[in-house]
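Consider the tokenized backbone below.
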């Protein structure tokens, strides 16, 4: 049962949000003139109605709907040599399913029961916590291009720079960022870090370094607590051309998990229960992006790769992953963007050889790359085709078709997005039955930017199950996710 103090905190936060918004819209008549460095108040509201239909099982009900909202109220000030920001988050979930968790290996049937299980099996939950609270020092160094941020903040690897070229910016946002570290913004709680970040940025290059401890959250509405999970990240990004229509990045990421939570891998349960040693992994990788004229349009190419080594508890860890994607935008009326891509990550072929070879996705936002998130980028092979249409400046239509297989048939089918509670590992794995074919997935979405403050999104995705899913769900049938979302910010 959620405590009365938590409910009171939720009410107080909503009152604070309402008062802050009202003050920002109508400041008192006797307010002094705007200062040189005014206090800035930001408010973001997201409302979403989700409908899930998980792969069939008679042991639980995977067909359900629930409503969720996330409100973020921020206040800050940007001065010449430093700035500060404090932001509260207030997630609310209503009507969570209470009969959508089946016995192993079927487990939780979608994200609805993940929220339900993470919040003391309550159908209606709410929380309030500091999402961000940091100070940033600016203009460091002799030529003053550096910044230092300390406190609680969100981090998205791969998004260290925002290119002016719209195509390059979209590729970074949709196909590079969030792969290994993200804020899990699709969930209604999200993820932050408590730590320090250093950035040195010039027009041609960017160097970013971060060391931080992961906060609880994602599905758990109590997002204030730190976990015994650490990340150290460094990246160097450089433009390819003077016009900044291409770039490359090299990065290193070290991850440590000291929680002692039961690991998810393809070893027998007894072996995993006996292995409570820490996880210590290092990932080396990079990406290459380029956009260039081609005929009567523009073409793009994307390369991404990563190699991992370290200790997976008592096992030696060696794994890798890579992606190649190409696209073309002809100069047609509907401004179409045709894209093809292929991703593959390693899986573990022998659970008894003393090595762990499953690529580990660390702390991502999995929904960026799995828009219907019944899978992620672990032990995964994904060939896809994508079409984006822009019939109006405020409307974007997108449709994807994915052919999904497992990287190794002797490994598991993985889903999830990383650590979010002290005792919950953050990933689930289901047996494949020695089969590789996972699913064929098709989806469509429509985004409408109503004005500068309001946007609407509709999404519908369907998955046609194959033999690897049938190993856990013998009467699997098909899965479906749809949602309608409204975003408002000022």
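A designed sequence for it:
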């Amino acid at each position: 049962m959620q405590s009365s103090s938590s409910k009171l905190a939720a009410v107080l936060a909503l009152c604070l949000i309402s008062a802050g918004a009202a003050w920002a819209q109508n400041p008192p008549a006797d307010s002094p003139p705007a200062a040189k460095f005014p206090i800035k108040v930001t408010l973001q509201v997201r409302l979403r109605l989700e409908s899930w239909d998980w792969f069939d099982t008679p042991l639980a009900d995977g067909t359900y709907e629930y409503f969720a909202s996330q409100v973020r109220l921020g206040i800050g000030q940007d001065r010449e040599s430093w700035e500060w920001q404090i932001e509260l988050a207030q997630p609310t979930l209503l009507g969570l399913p209470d009969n959508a968790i089946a016995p192993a290996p079927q487990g939780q049937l979608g994200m609805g029961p993940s929220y339900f299980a993470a919040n003391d099996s309550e159908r209606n939950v709410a929380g309030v916590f500091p999402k961000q609270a940091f100070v940033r020092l600016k203009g460091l160094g002799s030529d003053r291009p550096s910044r230092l941020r300390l406190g609680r903040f969100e981090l998205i690897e791969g998004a260290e720079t925002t290119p002016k070229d719209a195509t390059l910016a979209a590729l970074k946002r949709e196909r590079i960022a969030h792969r290994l570290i993200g804020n899990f913004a699709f969930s209604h709680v999200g993820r932050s870090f408590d730590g320090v970040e250093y950035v040195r940025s010039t027009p041609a290059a960017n160097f970013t370094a971060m060391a931080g401890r992961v906060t609880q959250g994602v599905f758990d509405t109590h997002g204030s607590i730190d976990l015994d999970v650490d990340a150290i990240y460094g990246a160097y990004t450089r433009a390819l051309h003077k016009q900044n229509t291409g770039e490359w990045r090299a990065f290193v990421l070290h991850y440590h998990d000291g929680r002692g939570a039961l690991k998810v891998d393809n070893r027998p349960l007894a072996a995993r229960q006996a292995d409570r040693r820490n996880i210590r992994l290092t990932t080396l990788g990079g990406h290459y992006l380029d956009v260039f004229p081609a005929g009567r349009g523009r073409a793009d190419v994307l390369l991404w790769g990563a190699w991992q080594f370290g200790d997976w508890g008592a096992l030696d860890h060696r794994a890798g992953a890579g992606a190649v994607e190409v696209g073309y935008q002809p100069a047609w009326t509907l401004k179409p963007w045709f894209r093809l891509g292929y991703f593959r990550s390693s899986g573990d072929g022998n659970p008894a050889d003393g090595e762990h070879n499953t690529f580990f996705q660390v702390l991502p936002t999995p929904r960026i790359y799995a828009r219907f998130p019944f899978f992620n980028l672990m032990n995964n092979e994904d060939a896809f085709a994508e079409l984006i249409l822009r019939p109006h400046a405020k409307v974007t239509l997108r449709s994807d078709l994915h052919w999904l297989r497992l990287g190794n048939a002797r490994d598991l089918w993985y889903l999830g997005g990383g650590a979010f509670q002290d005792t919950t590992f953050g990933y689930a794995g289901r047996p494949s039955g020695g089969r590789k074919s996972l699913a064929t997935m098709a989806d469509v979405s429509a985004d409408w930017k109503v004005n500068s403050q309001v946007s609407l999104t509709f999404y519908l995705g369907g998955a046609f199950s194959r033999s690897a899913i049938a190993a856990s769900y013998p009467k699997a049938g098909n899965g479906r996710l749809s949602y309608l979302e409204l975003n408002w910010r000022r």
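The helical segments are 4-25, 111-118, 166-176, 269-273, 467-470.
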